[in-house]
Amino acid sequence: MSSLAGTTIDVVGGGFGGLSTACYLADAGADVRVLEKNEQLGGRASRLEVDGFRFDMGPSWYLMPDVFERFFGHFGKSTDDYYDLERLDPHYRIFFKDGDEVDVSADRAEVRELFAEYEAGGGEAFDAYLEESESNYELAMDNFVYEDRPRLRDWVDLDVMKAAPVGLKLMGNMQGHVEKYFENPKLQQIMQYTLVFLGGAPHNTPALYNMMSHVDFNLGVHYPVGKDGRDNGLGAVVDAVVDLGDELGVEYVTDAPVAEITRRKDGFLVATEDGTEYHPDLVVSDADYAHTEQELLPEHERQYDADYWESKTYAPSAFLLYMGVEGDVDELAHHTLVLPEDWDPHFEQIFDEPAWPDDPAYYLCVPSETDETTVPDGDTDEYSNLFVLVPIAPDLEDGEATRQRYRDEVLADIAENTGVDLRDRITFEKQFSVSDFGERYNSIQGTALGLAHTLKQTALLRPSHRSSAVDGLYFTGSFTTPGIGVPMCLISGQHTADAVIDDR
User: Fold this and answer.
1) 461 CB-contact burial (10 Å; exposed 0-12 / middle 13-18 / buried 19+)
2) What residue spans define the domains of the chain?
3) For range 370-376, the mean pLDDT
4) Contact 210, 174 (CB under 8 A)
5) What positions does the domain Amine oxidase occupy (predicted)?
6) What is the pLDDT of residues 260-282, one digit of tens each?
7) Is residue 47 within a helix (H) or strand (E), and if so which, with residue range?
8) Counts of helices then strands in the chain (DSSP H, E)
């Protein structure tokens, strides 16, 4: 008999954390229902389709393919059952604002040569850095990511003790760590751009996250191609996890914003804004943790007060422009970064003195360079599909006038630094920023990602999967361990389900 047979569980929120948790719980025998606020599943991995253009609105990088294969493998499946992977080459293109341009190839040997061109000994330093990065990746994944350690006593473990000397050495920040290997500022930026995916900055992210370079250069950057009518891109992965849940018996309810979660003697009351009531035995929340605590639970059932959430360091929000344009943009790669010579002022305007960045570092996603299905009639000679993402501080004022001013500045910056002038070619445009993250995803301060991966917000210092105030209430997603990003949220789902199973 399955360990959760006869148990009804509502998962509030259909992001990757909630979808993953639902699969694990259903596989353990529970009757699982996912209640999603918006019109589609996927959470921040929403899709926008209009006028023949299709956009991944949130995550657009497919990294850590081993995590996805592990997830599906748990259920006797493979990613190949749902989608194929196309390795991108180049992985990404970088335009430096001094006029320099580099392609980061899928061929590691070519990247090594690139590093050697920028500074004497750069190739050897690249090899040494990646060797350490791979070692740290294996150490971290085996001991701290796949293995949840929510209590201090969980850290009293032989494997942890063996890993401790390495971990302690990497408690400094990323900037100091990278400087030990590379003098050239551009090489330092290449090794640290992935911090954007963790919602951090070089000066506040632990050096342990140098493992992301192994993810980049060794594991590769891919693009999912859906099978059996599924979308391509990250939408294909959402569809795959949803389809897996279907096969396991998960029920999905969209357009169902939850207004209340209350503990009752015989379980829970979960009420949606339209007055529908559900009565599960247990509840898992994949809604933003702070929103669940402050808005959905009665005050006496909250673990943390408003001061707790106010004291936290949040990952950046974003200013996004989704654009369908006439003609090609072949100067841009599928993933393109535009970086100033000195990006410290941009990070300072995110974390230290919040303001709209004066000289931004930003990202351009151009899926039409790879995928003809993202433009009308598949005509990539006639149309291009792209979005620009500028990381900005959470909680910024983003009224219409401010957005319009910044939109014009960003488009001018793109033209100046990439040679691609989009301004007279845009046939479709949609903006998305701080207030939209708050409205669509109930995101505290409009953060695009959740809690930043600072030293004080890593591992057991992140909020728990279990509520300490309400028996039977659990949490999953990017606020919990292991943290931010699609792969981490998939793993978070397993941690949450394991906690439920252990407790029952």
Assistant:
1) exposed
2) 8-53+66-85+228-312+451-503, 109-219, 313-441
3) 97
4) yes
5) 17-501
6) 999 999 999 999 999 999 999 99
7) strand 47-50
8) 16, 19
**Checking DSSP bridges between strand 383-392 and strand 362-365, what pairing results, if any?**
antiparallel
**Phi, then psi, of 23 in degrees rounded to 5:** -65, -45
Q: CA angle, 391 as apex, 238 and 293 as ends, to 5°?
A: 65
**The 101-104 sheet, strands edge to edge:** 101-104, 92-96, 335-339, 362-365, 383-392, 317-326, 426-432
The 3-state secondary structure of 266-300 reads CEEEEEECCCCEECCCEEEECCCHHHHHHHHCCHH
Q: Can you tell me whether residue 363 is helix, strand or coil? A: strand
Beta strands in 172-276 (DSSP E): 222-226, 251-253, 258-264, 267-272
CATH code for residues 8-53+66-85+228-312+451-503: 3.50.50.60
Angle among Cα 177, 178, 180 to the nearest 5 degrees reads: 70
Q: Which CATH number fits domain 109-219: 2.30.29, 1.10.405, 3.40.50, 1.10.10?
A: 1.10.405
pTM above threshold 0.90? yes
Task: Give residues with Cβ within 8 angstroms of 171, minimum separation 6.
Answer: 206, 207, 208, 455
CA distances from 465 to 2, 454, 468 (A): 22, 19, 9
Q: Give the least confident one: 9-13, 54-58, 197-201.
A: 197-201
pLDDT in tens, 294-328: 999 999 999 999 999 999 999 999 999 999 999 99
Question: Which uninterrupted H or E stretch holds 50?
Answer: strand 47-50
As a whole number of angstroms, the distance between CA 84 and CA 93 comes to 23
CA–CA gap between residue 313 and residue 316 (Å, rounded): 9
